[in-house]
Design goal:
Elements (H helix, E strand, L loop, with lengths): L1 H6 L5 H21 L5 H13 L6 H29 L5 H8 L3 H14 L1 H7 L6 H10 L4 H29 L3 H28 L1
Helix pairs in contact: 2-3, 2-4, 3-4, 3-9, 3-10, 4-5, 4-8, 4-9, 6-7, 6-8, 7-9, 9-10
């Protein structure tokens, strides 16, 4: 959506904002619930487009939209996971979390959560593929919703700031918005893929 908007002659900024911010909110919310959407790349791309706009609060709106959507999505997924933990038959949401939390990473997340508490939850949002193992560790530790929400709120703020800064960097390096979007997307994908590549290299050795 943001890439298409940057690659074609841009409509009025008011039209971009009327369509772009609700779309960003919805996509990040869905990405939090169904972790196959590259939400970091979406936020970075949105920040590039906002960087090239003249509206004074465009970047602030991207930050608020992305962080709020991520927070609500995480809370909804945690609530669904808690329901699954308490259900005799589990739930497909809980199974989806477990499927993306390998045993060794879950064990590491549980150990770190026991030692450092909320700080691990905050850092997990900044680590590629780190969110779900820590969320599952919180579920298995039977954290109440209030405690999880209290730790997840700053985590979502830090996540939104990080990927927005990547977008601002891409927007400042290139004159055309679409060039900045491409650079931001490539950088976020490289960051996301780097831990997996490093683990494969270590395993091969």
């Amino acid at each position: 959506m943001w890439l298409a908007a940057a690659a074609t002659p841009p409509p009025a900024e008011s039209t971009q904002q009327a369509i772009g911010y609700p779309s960003l909110f919805l996509l990040v919310l869905i990405g939090a619930l169904v972790p196959v959407v590259p939400t970091g790349a979406l936020v970075s791309s949105a920040a590039v487009v906002a960087f090239h706009q003249t509206a004074p609060f465009a970047l602030a709106l991207v930050f608020v939209t992305a962080s709020l959507a991520a927070f609500l999505g995480d809370i909804a997924l945690y609530w669904l996971g808690r329901r699954g933990m308490g259900s005799k038959n589990g739930s497909r949401w809980l199974e989806a979390i477990r499927a993306r939390a390998p045993e060794e990473r879950l064990a590491s997340a549980q150990a770190k959560l026991a030692d450092h508490g909320v700080a691990v939850l905050v850092l997990s949002r900044l680590m590629p593929a780190g969110r779900l193992p820590v969320m599952l560790a919180c579920l298995m530790a039977k954290w109440p919703m209030r405690r999880f929400a209290r730790g997840n709120f700053p985590a979502c703020l830090a996540w939104a700031v990080t990927y927005q800064l990547i977008g601002i960097l891409g927007g400042s390096l290139f004159k055309e918005p679409w060039e900045g979007v491409v650079a931001a997307v490539v950088l976020t994908l490289v960051i996301s893929a780097a831990p997996g590549v490093w683990r494969r290299v270590r395993a091969a050795r």
